[in-house]
Specification:
heterodimer, A: 327 residues, Rossmann fold, OB fold (Dihydrolipoamide Acetyltransferase, E2P), six-stranded mixed sheet, 24% helix, B: 273 residues, mainly alpha, 13 helices, 80% helix
């Protein structure tokens, strides 16, 4: 169990995130670049000092800061390994020596990791000969083969193709579950975060805005800000039986036609259309708001009816009118 | 995309070729000027002269004195100022500008002036000199004085070189090693030193060449015992250029191989990464 309350002052804002990650659980922090996600990981790993808060891993306190009282275990005693966005491999060691750097893995475990990550042909190469994706896999292997008690991943998917992303996610999931490690992934792509996570947190300006199941956070964003971050592109003002409200429109959670049984039906006029994936992106003017939706086929006329599938509803102040569950 | 050479207009192509030729020509001139003294030495040395000069019974004493003193100096530099350079590179010392300023000052000061000022610090009438006198030692005109003078002349080169070498090490690698469980001493041994090694080797070799060739401060603080630079000067004064040349050749012979080796190794190590 990793229990972290991290407060770190930065120039523009204070990063203030509280998070519990159970043994074997995978939590993803998602948010725009510069939101403070990496700072949280680096502080847990001991690369940043804590300005206020407490970090506990298992039965050990890694860091504590409150007023003048400051305690911190040095990085090398924390047992936390952080896989960084740009792989930090030792240039003077070959891949095999890099993989076994921590010296805690036996031959069988090394063989397994080498096989899973497809590193067999690279064992004698120096890091400078590796492509970005290969270096990233070696760094992951190195992290997995070290004797750590928590695994932190900072944008590990950058530069990896879809198949490798899948492999990395699978390998990490196996290791994390098998060894009962708490793990946190940081991503600025929602797909990566959802793919990885048991629970998904949305971070912006140093604050954890919402934490919940990957599906729930996207389907039930707690605020308009979260909704915008997780991909809701349009907001439509409506007046329903509960009063004035805004409905958030996710381009993918829209179907053409009038289906009152499946959600909220809107009527508008098509103002723009362009190809998008296998279908089309259609922009419609609904009561003066531009609504973006992705439809499999172009509407036959410029007058359009669309159904928002169970859209999040915000009272006009911008807070969800329903009660979104905070994890 | 940069324009391709074969689509350049003829005139511009001509200019480009001319400027390449001019650059190479200038390089050759600079190179010849730099190597001219070495060439002159090779041309004016004659076997008979070397034999006469080096066949005197105590002829090789200056060589021994120079080798021993320079060896002590580089050892002291590595052991004492190496960690200092590391702390300087890692910004772990309070008032870093003060330390860097002092090192630069020592680097910029003419060696002759260093020698003059050293007399006020380690001369026989100073507290340091009197302290040495209690244990029947002296730092002027002694081997100890020679070592101290060489130390002052070479230390700034080593400190600045080593500092730059340590600064060139990627901090992320050290952090990575720490996250994989290495305590600071192991990080130093497994990451920092191997990464800084090429730069450290260059700093070491430069310090060696400075120490063994030290003359300005040495002449004032430790005229005796003669090291190679002093014997070159003294022989020149007493018996003329021809007699001094063999010692000059000897000095180059012991001073240069280490820097050249260090350079070759550094270049190879940098290419290999």
């Amino acid at each position: 169990m990793l229990d972290a309350h991290v407060e770190v002052r930065r120039r523009a804002f204070t990063v203030d995130v509280t998070l519990q990650v159970a043994a074997g659980e995978r939590v993803a922090l998602f948010g725009p670049s510069g939101a403070g996600k990496s700072t949280v990981l680096e502080t847990i790993a001991g690369l940043h000092s804590l300005d206020r808060g407490r970090i506990v891993l298992g039965d050990r306190e890694l860091a504590y800061a409150e007023g003048r009282v400051r305690r911190a275990l040095p990085t090398w005693r924390r047992g936390v390994v952080l896989l960084r966005q740009r792989a930090a491999l030792m240039p003077h060691l070959n891949v095999r020596e890099n993989l076994t750097y921590a010296g805690s893995a036996d031959a069988a475990r090394l063989d397994r990791v080498v096989e899973r990550l497809g590193l067999g042909d690279l064992l004698d190469s120096r890091p400078r000969r590796l492509s970005g994706g290969q270096a990233q896999r070696v760094a992951l292997g190195q992290a997995l083969l070290s004797d750590h008690r928590a695994l932190l991943l900072d944008e590990p998917y950058v530069g990896l193709d879809a198949e490798l992303r899948r492999t990395v996610t699978d390998v990490v999931a196996e290791m994390v579950a098998g060894r009962g490690l708490p793990s946190i992934l940081v991503a600025h792509e929602l797909d990566d975060a959802q793919d990885f996570a048991d629970r998904l947190g949305v971070v912006a300006d140093g604050r954890l805005l919402q934490l919940g199941s990957p599906h729930e956070v996207v389907r039930r964003p707690a605020s308009r800000q979260v909704a915008e971050l997780v991909g809701y592109r349009s907001f439509v003002t409506v007046q329903d039986e509960r009063g004035p409200a805004e409905l958030a429109v996710h381009p993918q959670a829209v179907v053409a036609g009038d289906h009152p049984d499946r959600g909220v039906v809107l009527r508008g006029t098509v103002t723009a259309r362009r190809p998008h994936g296998p279908g089309f992106e259609v922009v419609a003017d609904v009561n003066g708001s531009a609504v973006v939706c992705w439809l499999p086929a172009l509407p036959p006329t410029s007058a359009i009816e669309i159904t928002l599938l169970d859209p999040p509803r915000f009272a006009r102040e911008g807070v969800a009118a329903g009660t979104p569950a905070l994890g | 995309m940069p324009p391709r050479a074969d689509v350049l207009p003829a005139a511009r192509l001509q200019v480009a070729r001319l400027s390449t030729v001019a650059t190479i020509g200038a390089g050759v001139v600079v190179w010849c000027l730099l190597l001219a003294p070495v060439g002159a030495l090779a041309r004016h040395l004659d076997g008979a002269g070397i034999r006469t000069a080096l066949h005197r019974p105590d002829a090789l004493d200056p060589l021994r004195v120079s080798l021993e003193s320079a060896a002590i100096v580089v050892t002291v530099l590595v052991v004492v100022t190496g960690p200092f350079a590391y702390l300087l590179a890692r910004r772990r010392l309070p008032f870093p500008w003060l330390w860097e300023g002092a090192t630069l000052l020592a680097l910029m000061m003419p060696p002759l002036v260093i020698g003059l000022l050293l007399i006020f610090v380690i001369g026989p009438l100073t507290p340091f000199g009197r302290g040495l006198d209690h244990v029947h030692l002296s730092a002027t005109n002694t081997f100890l004085g020679l070592v101290i003078a060489e130390l002052y002349e070479s230390a700034p080169y080593f400190i600045l070189g080593a500092q730059a070498a340590f600064e060139s090490v990627d901090r992320r690698l050290e952090e990575q090693a720490a996250m994989l469980g290495d305590r600071p001493g192991r990080v130093l041994r497994r990451v920092t030193l191997p990464q800084a090694a090429p730069g450290l080797a260059m700093a070491f070799a430069t310090a060696w060449a400075r120490a063994i060739g030290a003359y300005g401060a040495v002449m004032i603080v430790a005229y005796h015992p003669y090291g190679l630079p002093m014997i070159v000067y003294v022989t020149l004064q007493e018996s003329g250029l021809a007699s001094a040349l063999p010692y000059a050749a000897l000095l180059l012979l012991v001073a240069l191989p280490l820097p050249l080796l260090a350079y070759a190794w550094t270049a190879r190590a940098r290419r290999a990464r």
